[in-house]
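FORM 7B: Structural annotation worksheet

SECTION A. Query
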Amino acid sequence: MTTALRLEKITADNIDLAIGLKVRPDQERLVAPVVKSLAEAYVHPGTAWPRIILDGDRPVGFVMAFFDIDFAGDGKRPDLRSGLWRLNIAAGEQGRGHGRFAVESVAAEIRRRGGTRLTTSWVPGEGGPEAFYLGLGFRPTGETSGGQTVGELELELELELELELNQPPARGTDLPGGTAS
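SECTION B. Predicted structure
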């Protein structure tokens, strides 16, 4: 992953770059195309947060978050959640940390808005993104949404983990590469 990764709001200047992003053909069944996400963002302007992921000036992905939706959707017991609605990493750009960057960026925005958990869902089964999400610390909730597995990442715990990871190792602890302090 390069240090030039950034998210940009979708505008008239970059909409064609965003729409042109395509996942691998075998992944098309797992995530909606960017154009559908942008249509949904248009009809849910107070909820959707669509962004193009750029590596320098090169488009590498698309992410769309949602904020403060009634996840139960029945109006009887509001269950307000925020999270990751869509994540599309371009076919030739996968495995380079762009997806992790996108999830971390959404988590940072949720934290900035006062949230403490990030909700997402994924298509279960072979070839799906479950291992990616579980590797980032998401845990299935036992719920489904539209036939997809719902998972959550507790952001307070992740923040504490980040702080722990950024601390210098205790004396005598092995460092990467097998050296010791």
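SECTION C. Observations
Residues 98-112 form the longest helix (15 residues). Residues 5 and 55 are 4 Å apart (CA to CA).

SECTION D. Sign-off
Analyst initials: ____
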